Amino acid sequence: MTTVVPIIDALGHRDIPRCAALEKEMFAGDSPWPATAFRAELNAPYNRYFAIRDEPGGAVAGYAGISTLGSEGSFDCEIHTIAVAPTHRGRGYGRALLDALLEVADSVDAPVFLEVRVDNVTAIALYERNGFVRSGVRRGYYQPSGADAYTMIRPSASGRAGVDESLDSAGKGGQHA
């Protein structure tokens, strides 16, 4: 049996049609991103997007994106998306993509924020295993389904702007819109 070692590289404009198709497949009930959204995300200078593939130059099996906002010494990072094709789940691809995103945040010593559907138990467990804590609930965040999202925070590598500080500003983990 041959084990596939996935390749993580930069998501490029040539990957957009595949990503838009995966969005329609995976997120049909919650406004999947069209190709134009991927183009805008890739063109924004503060965003980094990664692809995971089974082989160099191969089709996208998953993708992930993060933004770095703020200025030197006070950056924050926000995960925009992590998605793995249904045919590739359970292989550690989501974990590998998350690792790539966290390397971006750690390189600028930034805390990381994200939203995740409250019913996405697999993703929540992955995030919690990687140092994220729940900090609130966004009611009706996903549209048009109306599904709620947890907001989650992971402190910076040094602890600067750590979870306690973020929770204080978010109302000690209370619910917010």
Automatic annotation (TrEMBL):
PROSITE patterns per record: GNAT
Which keywords label this protein?
Acyltransferase, Cytoplasm, Transferase
N-acetyltransferase domain sequence ranges? 6-157
List the Pfam families hit by this protein, alphabetically: Acetyltransf_1
Q: Name one GO molecular function term.
A: N-acetyltransferase activity
Database matches in InterPro entries: AcTrfase_RimI/Ard1 (IPR006464), Acyl_CoA_acyltransferase (IPR016181), GNAT_dom (IPR000182), YpeA/RimI_acetyltransf (IPR050680)
Family named by the database record? Belongs to the acetyltransferase family. RimI subfamily.
This chain's protein is named: Ribosomal-protein-alanine N-acetyltransferase
Gene name of the encoded protein: rimI
